[in-house]
Amino acid sequence: MIRILLCCGGGFSSSALAKAVEKQIIEEGIEDQVSITFLPLTLFAAQVKKNEPLIYDAVLCCPHLLHSVNRLTQSFTIRIPVHILPPRLYGLMTIREILYDVQDMIERFSVHQKNPFFFPHEEDILRVTRSKSYRNTYKQEAKD
C-alpha cells in the first residue's frame, strides 16, 4: 500500500482533487494499492517541525507551494520524497499517472534522499509541461 499525502496552501483545491482521485481509486479497484490524504502544507510542516512520525510514503505538493516547500526542506530533514507537482499534471491528475510517479519517486529517493524531490531535468518545475507520469513522458530516461 502506497500512502500519498497531497498538500495545498489552504487545502481547498487539494481536497477537491483528493476526492476526485479517491473516486478513481475506487473505480479502478486499487484501494489495496494506494491511499491519498490531503492536508494544507502548514499542517504537514507542523508535523515535521514536531518531529512526528510520518505515516506517508510520499508528499505531493501543489505547484504554487514551490517556495514554501523549498524553505521547509532546507530547514528540516524529511525522510520521504516531497515533490512539487508539475502544473499540467496537477490540473489533469489521474491516479494511474500519479501512482507511477510516486513509485518512481520512492525508488529514486531511496538512492539520493534529496528534498524537494525532482525528476531529472525538471528542477525548474514551473516550466515542466508534462501531463503524464515521468516514465510515460520520457520512457527511455525513466529506465535510467
Structure description:
The protein is of the alpha/beta class. The protein has a single domain (2-143), classed as Rossmann fold (3-Layer(aba) Sandwich), CATH 3.40.50.2300. The chain contains seven helices and four strands. It has a four-stranded parallel sheet with strand order 2-1-3-4, sandwiched between helices.
Topology of this structure?
Elements: E1 2-8, H1 12-28, E2 34-40, H2 41-49, E3 58-61, H3 66-75, E4 82-84, H4 87-91, H5 95-112, H6 134-137, H7 139-143
Parallel strand pairs: 1-2, 1-3, 3-4
Q: Can you identify the CATH class?
A: Alpha Beta
Helix/strand order? EHEHEHEHHHH
Terminal CA distance: 25 Å
CATH architecture: 3-Layer(aba) Sandwich
How do the strands line up in the largest sheet? 2-1-3-4
How would you characterize the largest beta sheet? 4 strands, parallel
Q: How would you summarize what this structure contains?
A:
The chain has 144 residues and is of the alpha/beta class. The chain is 47% helix and 15% strand. The mean pLDDT is 89.
Keywords:
4 strands; Rossmann fold; about 140 residues; alpha/beta; four-stranded parallel beta sheet
